[in-house]
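Please annotate the following for my students:
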Amino acid sequence: MSLKRLSSFKKQLCGNGAIQASDECKKDVSYLFCSLNDFINYYSIECPGKENVEACTTCQREADEVYQKNSWISTWIDSIGKMPSGISDGNYHWLGDYEQCQMLKLENKFNGHYCMIEFEVPDTILNTQCDNQPLEVHLGICLPASCKLNETKAIIEDVAQHKMGVHCEPPSEWHTREITFLIVILIWCFIIFAATIWIWKFGAPESKTYVDNIVEALSLQHNLRKCLRTTRKRTMFHSIDGLQVVSIALLVNGNIFFLIMEYLENVSFSYTSSEDIFMQPVINYSVYADGLLAFLGFRIGLHVLRKGYSDSSTFWKHLLSRFFRVWPPYAFVTLFVSHLYIRLGYGPMWSHNDLPYRCEKTWWENLLLINNILGFKETCLDGGFLFALEAQFYLVAIVIIYIRRNSKTASNTVIGMLITISTAYIFIVTNIFKTYATLIPTAPAFNANHESKYANYVNLIFLNPISRISPFLFGLGAPLWCPIKFNPTMKKLIGLFSFLIGLSVALIIWFPHFVKKFETINSYIDGVYAALHRSAWALAIIALAYVFENLNEGNVIRVFASWKLFYPMSKLVFLVFLLSEPVALSLFASLHRPINATLFSIILTTVGTFVCSYILAVIVEVIITLPIRHLFDFICPIETPPDTVLSGTQNRGSIPSVDREIEPFIRKNGH
């Protein structure tokens, strides 16, 4: 914008004539631009010379008063972001000085707050004549705090005559919904701590009354022991716990790499890393979520073998029990982020964090667990889609289990049909919409249509329950179809199985790296990879669990994967992924300058985010999830079946009452 146009607007805005806003907003905008106008005019004041001493003195005194009254404008101008170095390397953060804006408010010189303005510099202005997307600048500026966000946006766009995105610090006044949510949390915490003190002072009586059971269900001692308990109910497949924890660690690491792009000074690091062969396990990270979904189905399948769904009349209890295990922590984190998260930080980069605004608009859709169906623009937290998929797939599993009670052949047919439909759906969508083969493609795949291709991929494939159900179904079917223990011949082939699993994992992870230019290769290759790689990953990770289960008990790999500490950690993997996004963004958005990323810094950030997310997950589990779950279990108990299939009694030469289809496998292997 030219100085001539700025001069014209500062005169109009000084007179309030061009502003369509509230009276308070008009007043502060007028004060800002009038002061700016007077400060600029100060330097054009010419006082009489020595021939008229009195007039000269009067003029200088008046000029000094104008300067003293409006000198704060120099600080305001200095606080506005300026073009930094490293533009060609992706440094588009023109942040300005956050502290100067705050100081003007504290000194009662200007009622302002820090805002981040986002705008694009078109290629026609840059005159580079290239096909790349225009430079998107994030400019920090101190604007009147009395103006609402829509008023601020309208004024800025009117002045600049350009489309703008505006994010400002939240007002200091709390909304009613924020206060209400905070009061509810405080009341709940008071009840929890009151129950804890009661149990601590009087203990839990041997003969418990109705009230005693409720108090114990709410107490921190009881719930903390349950949360950190390392005693397992099942006697086999302990390695699943370790594989889940490793999967969530890798998933968090990859998601952080994706999240930090907007907070980097050297944005080119992300693009060059996508071409690095050693970074592919980080780049192609979305398959780790399929491993978690596969293990979710696998656990349900094991529960089926333990006669966990033997009575169809209790199916509704299982649904409610699952609901009260999954939904309360998810709802709490979603509501906390949408109502209170924005109050936890401040700074120039904090205004760039759009997570609170995104959640504020879409929290109700997320609470209904339909956010993945509505698309990524309706998603609050990245980890929310896993909770939605978990709930949706559990409903599918209940239907399959119900069918299985009448006909195992029919249930197996349903599983096979759903897997076929899912695979065909992905292949067709990939070829019709020419989407990417994976979530983060390599750099050559980016082009002018990147945003539309990315939106189609995420909405139609990545978040869609139809395309994501295959890994879950393979996990559900594995314990129903396959023998738990290998026979002697198969045990001799464990080394070959391990090699094939490793080869499959390498092929899944590194395929997009070696097939770089998605646009120049037959799209059928992308379609085949997109349709098969998630199911292949699920099969590989389940096969790995079977290999670990059939290794010698003293094998160091099996011992590590079966470490007891992994058991309580494995129960929190979905919640950890949900929390990892706000934890990571809190770290980056609280900085006052963009960071210069390196591989080592990403590793350290991942470790810190991973540990903090687990600590917060334990707190949420103990204070929110377990009290509600134990209250439900007390009011509506479900009998836990004995571990008939995976019981240690099998090793004493007796065959318990088990599902007939696995009894031959137990007999054949001498259990």
Q: What stands out?
A: The beta strands are 93-94, 112-121, 135-144, 165-168.
